[in-house]
């Protein structure tokens, strides 16, 4: 298994994995949004190759000493082979190299089946209320 930084040629593979794992489609999955994340910090978007094929993806970001990751997904046919664990460990290593002292992840409340996986990696459930608002571009500023 190889864990490496994302390349644009991986886009079709990871979007297929996101669809197959049931991750809802959001604006963060568009090529433009992913390209912006890559421009911001390409070393924090990582993929796993298993037997020469893209098998998983994780997207991370840093805010000061806090690291965040999201969109972790592994090809359903390859789950249980340690791919997700290796992706998280590789991203955590990059976080540590950059001075991150705490990592946060958000899990959809309807996706509680992943909690044992994260717990096995040392993550604890913390109760937060997350508020969200979608901003639309101002036509005058374009």
TrEMBL record:
The lineage of its organism: Bacteria, Bacillati, Bacillota, Bacilli, Bacillales. Keywords: Acyltransferase, Transferase. The keyword Manganese does not apply. Its EC number is 2.3.1.-. Pfam families: Acetyltransf_1. GO terms for molecular function: acyltransferase activity, transferring groups other than amino-acyl groups. PANTHER family: AMINOALKYLPHOSPHONATE N-ACETYLTRANSFERASE-RELATED, AMINOALKYLPHOSPHONATE N-ACETYLTRANSFERASE-RELATED-RELATED. Residues 1-136 form the N-acetyltransferase domain. This is GNAT family N-acetyltransferase. Gene3D superfamilies: 3.40.630.30.
